[in-house]
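Blinded run. Sample ID left blank on purpose so nobody reads anything into the name before looking at the predicted structure. Input follows.
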Amino acid sequence: MKTRKNQAVDLYSRGANSYKTMIRASIILLGIVFLQACQNSPEKNSVIKSELGQEHPNITKLKDQSAEFTPEIIKLNENVYVAVGYDGSNTSMVIGEHGVVIIDALRALGAAETVAEKFREITTKPVQALIYTHGHNDHTGGASAFVGNGKNAKIIARKGFKEELEGKSPVEPILKKRNARQFGRNLPAKDIINRGVASGSTSTDRVGEGYLEPNITFKDSISITLAGINFELFAANGETNDALFVWIPSLESLFTGDNYYKSFPNLYAIRGSQYRDVKSWGESIKKMGSLPVQYLIPGHTRPLSGKSIIHNNLNNYSTAILSVYQQTIDAMNKGYTLQQTVDSVKVADSLLQQSNLQEFYGSVPWGVRSVFLHYVGWFDGNPTNLYPLSSSSEAKHIIELAGGGNQVLTQLNQAINKGDYQWGLQLADYLLQTDFKRTKVINAKIALLRALAAQQINAPARNYYLSFAYELEKNNLEPH
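Blinded prediction complete.
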């Protein structure tokens, strides 16, 4: 006859057919592991009640965000069409008198070919130009599907285009690994919801194989006539330092690239990135908000129509970004440490409650940390941190202070009972630094990561928690 622990492990290892079943399995395993590991605890271990049998409201909100990525060719007016949901980003077609202009080109050549064919069903006019709003691969990889062999097509971008991409970094290997975690690229289908501003899974058909280099670049701004329509392009540092936005006055149409989408902006990417100029980002959005925009086309999520709603959305977006920036600067000038600064910065509830500022993709604390480190580097001003203890030495001291490894396990168990999962995670890391009951502690960390994921509205954080849990399970756990 199987023990209670083996029964739970069997349930866990078979995998769940639904999201809720998976959570229950993880919870059962966590509870049983710690009932056995912490016999000296004065209180019984309870399962993680908030996740058992019901979905956390944040997960429901994140699931609802998936409606933004339903595949569709959206007609905004007789000249502007936007393809949403065919890949991880949007691509747009502007029809002029003499031809068409494409704005952004998706990531996978296969997905781009699908959209290009749908565009040709609308008009057979030739593509005269393609504009890249920035250098991220999900906006550039399918260009040839739209331009074809048209050697005369103008391909337009900012100077310095693509200079900051991970492929040019000396730490490219770890950036790629963290990228996969952030986007949940290796998660099983049962765990996938979405990526906050894109579908949970996107095309892998010839990724990047259609990229074409720009043949026209500009520094600050350019006014150019394409296909008989006047386009105004403006440099706009934000999510990248090669970003631009496109304004077509005659069509009252604004193409924001990735500086605006329906989510709190990703002021820092947890996959790792160069500093994103937060102040310039907010100012760029403010400039966009001064234009008489009737149609707003973001780099991700669905387009907007209507001057009032667009003005309000751009205004609350810029206000939120600039608030994070200024509060961070003010706290730094008061001599706050990094963590004190993070704790002090608060965006007004009236802003965070807006539908376009939910933290599906970006996170306020991540932005604060990015600004702080950009301006003063790693040292936060506290002399204690000039030469801190090594991680293993600190862990040994903390465990000794607590009365030994079993006492820390007891505290870890209590943190689980209280739903204090972050504290439990940090206690687990102390124990792992000393290899104390490693298999049991890794089991606990896996379950804690999944418990945090089960209540996380931020898609990158959720994907990272789950991806890391699977990596621990695959690489570090001994057979049960």
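Unblinding after everyone has recorded impressions. The chain has 16 helices and 13 strands.
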